[in-house]
Amino acid sequence: MRGTALFILMLSGTTMASPAVRDTRAVAEDFVAARHPWQSLQALIKADPIPRDERFTRCGKPLEAFLPAGTRVGSRTTIGIRCGDEQGWTLYLPVSLQVFADVLVAGTTLTPNQSLQPGQVETKRRDIAGLGYGYLTSLPTEGNWRVRQIVQAGQALTPNDLQPDTLIRRGQTVSLRVKLGDIEISQRGEALSDAPLRGRLQVRNRESGRVVDGLVVSESLVDVR
């Protein structure tokens, strides 16, 4: 019976991997699974095949995984596997990581300095482990945004692709709001530079001529602190 089973196995072209080889890949994959930065999302992790070398097929002690100096877990990471028995060996095994999430992509090609409208972006599922420059899951709810650099249609948007649009412009008349405890004072001022929402700028008080530093809170209001 045993000989028949072996004969069938040979005919099928299938070979049985040794437990040590299978465990080596599992140790590397488990190491990445426990340390990648997207723990709340589903991940696909796959270690490369083990080199055809008898040294890596056996180990008398539990295998130890480690991250080589100067590296971090990402979409493609080389993991060190160490066997600590008397024969001793160290293997460096590449491991691929994919993590999928819904992110914003350009629905059409976006050009520099273009004002971004909600209808120009859409949500698509992407492998975020491969997005080295980051990604966006939604547009900021406050203020308007302008495209900083060209973004091709279908390309995932990164935080660096957008910048706050100018909300107050140089020379514009604004209201200066000063809070002193429960007292609120409002005065008129002139903006001395352009600034976006939540941006800082200098404003000249039109009554005193004094220049103060403020924070933009709306298209015509600046908080002085």
How does this structure look, described?
The chain has 225 residues and is mainly beta. The chain has helices at residues 2-12, 19-35, and strands at 43-47, 64-66, 76-83, 89-106, 121-127, 145-147, 162-164, 166-168, 173-180, 183-191, 195-196, 200-205, 211-216, 221-224. Strands 1, 2, 3, 4 and 5 form a 5-stranded antiparallel beta sheet that branches. A 5-stranded mixed barrel has the order 9-10-12-13-14. The longest helix is centred in the first third of the chain and has 17 residues, at 19-35. The radius of gyration is 29 Å and the shape is elongated.
Secondary structure: elements and pairs:
Elements: H1 2-12, H2 19-35, E1 43-47, E2 64-66, E3 76-83, E4 89-106, E5 121-127, E6 145-147, E7 162-164, E8 166-168, E9 173-180, E10 183-191, E11 195-196, E12 200-205, E13 211-216, E14 221-224
Parallel strand pairs: 9-14
Antiparallel strand pairs: 1-4, 2-3, 3-4, 4-5, 6-7, 8-11, 9-10, 10-12, 12-13, 13-14
